[in-house]
Amino acid sequence: MIRKHSATLHGHRTSFSLEDEFWAELKTIAAGRSMSLAALISEIDDHRQPDSNLSSALRLHVLSWAKAGGSRQP
After folding, report:
1. What is the DSSP string of the chain?
2. Percent with pLDDT over 90 in the chain
3. Which of 5, 11, 26, 57 has the most CB atoms in a 10 Å sphere around its CB?
4. What is the pTM of this model?
5. pLDDT score at 72
């Protein structure tokens, strides 16, 4: 199921939609890196392509992480 989520990035509130499975993997990635989920989302947002949206960037981050065997951060 796709759910709407909200986060504060650099003092600005934003929202994005993600499937539950992607949300769960983002939590796993954040925990594995000993960082908050908000910090991970902010990092991904900072490094995404200007023409991509945050939801897509989050999915691509999870995909890259999974393709690397879940052991290294993209």
Report:
1. -EEEEEEEETTEEEEEEEEHHHHHHHHHHHHHTT--HHHHHHHHHHHS-TTS-HHHHHHHHHHHHHHTTTSS--
2. 81
3. 26
4. 0.89
5. 53
